[in-house]
Amino acid sequence: MFISQLSIFVRNSPGSIAEITGILAKAGIDIRAFSVADTTDYGILRLIVNAPDRAEKVLRERGIAVSLNRVIGVQVPDVPGGMHEVFAYLAECGIGIEYGYAFVSRREGFAYAILRVDDKERAAKLLEERSIPMLTPREVYQN
Amino acid sequence: MKCWNPEMETMSRDELHALQSERIVKAVQYVYSRVNPYRKKMEDAGVAPGDIRSIDDLVKLPFTDKYDLADNYPYGLFAVPMREVIELHASSGTTGRQKVVGYTRSDLDLWREVMARTFAAGGVTKDDIMHVSYGYGLFTGGFGGHYGAERIGAAIVPIGTGNTQRQITVLRDFGCTAICCTPSYMLYIAETIEKMGIDPDEIKLRVGFLGAEPWTVEMRDDIERRLRIRTYDIYGLTEVIGPGVAFECDARAGLHVNEDHFYPEILDPDTLLPVPDGTQGELAFTCMTKECVPLLRYRTRDIAAVTHETCACGRTLARISKPVGRTDDMLIIRGVNVFPSQVESVLLNIPEASPYYMLIIDRVGALDTLEIQVELTPDVPVDQIRTLETIQKKIRSQVDSTLGLAAAIRLLPPQTLPRVEGKAKRVEDRRKL
Predict the structure, then answer these.
(1) Cross-chain Cβ contact B382/A98 below 8 Å
(2) Residues 6+ apart with CB under 8 A from A61
(3) What pTM did the predictor assign?
(4) Is the ipTM beyond the 0.85 threshold?
(5) CATH number for domain B1-326, candidates 3.40.50.12780, 3.40.50.1980, 3.20.20.150, 3.40.190.10
């Protein structure tokens, strides 16, 4: 039900992201979604890839500070108000959103979004109750 | 007055001088006849055992330093055959090789004696329960604490390091009344007790003996307030005996050196000549009574000053000021003396920080600035910026309380700083001085 996301600590200088994407490309790993969060001193690169466990291993072997975290992928109709319905509902239920970003969608008429929330088990249950479709690991890792 | 050995600790200076003279004469003859590398040094310097007739002749003798230990690793400086050695210890060295020492039965007895003096000065008696939270192993901290408590007859809890929550449970349930560990670990225990929500009244600690790293007055006040204990500073080094070389008394006016055994000298770092009392310089010790590794004029590279005035506590043993760092490393930033070793000891106690760091010193306008770049350890959970900010804040506040100076902290990914054999360059001073 949850998607594995890689988070990598990168320094603030040209080439630090390219280093990571280079390692993954060489390992034949496909990036499905990414986001880069920045602070003055460093950045956090978050990636959804098609083989998260292998990617983590490959990066760790190179001594890179990487961790795997579980996030929720939601599928929303690609129309005005599509995203809003999800956020408004989660807010109503008191679920806090830590961060989020979009995802290449393979489904006609739908947009995908990755969300890290403060209580993922509860959020997943709520989304299910409201029939908001979630991405499954299979959909993410195999296409 | 809490004195383990009043005869030795309050001896008149004249009697002490005579005792030291007697002991140094024997020690020089002993070392000359048994330790080839040192005999060679003496011969090269043109000094014979007969030239040493009193402790005042000590200045004639050549020095020993960490390189002698490295060059003669592991047992080249031992004065006895292995069959007389009961225990071996070692400490890491910046030479790349461990500094190995050995103890005969008599040396272990000496260790017990000097550690008993250390703990007794803090009021430890047979009725106490001593929580030994220094590492047991080749490091001398754990065994030193153990032997001191054993000599006094206190009940020893040989818990060593690690698993802080369990340590606190033991502290509480076993009713430990005394503890020995590093000051930063003591602070960490205080924080963890608070975090665990334990009522401070449940902890029966009364006194702590903290050493093996530099700590500021602020850190001491913090520890004493939070744990409601009285703390005593202790100083030692493996090459001399381990902990037990010098200890603090209630007067808090320096650390008393067990100079009936370890004669202290303060040397000018450039000329290596002794400096007057009260002047800071490099600390050197001469072991007059050890059997296995009796180092003579061993240069510690620590900086301190000495005084021979009688202390308010009544002891006549010379006192050294709290040694703060190494001669080769000291920096002055905004008027504050800073030693990279202090930064290192802070980082070593923060699990998320690796020991790879760099100090960048610069000047902005009229003010010196200090930035500490630290590599994170590879297993730090990186996902939320807030987690990393918390780590950054933790490092900043501990550095501030240890150095007495605010520094900017820059987190780096693992493997960013250069790796070198031997001592790494840890400082980049961009000020044009």
Answers:
(1) no
(2) none
(3) 0.65
(4) no
(5) 3.40.50.12780
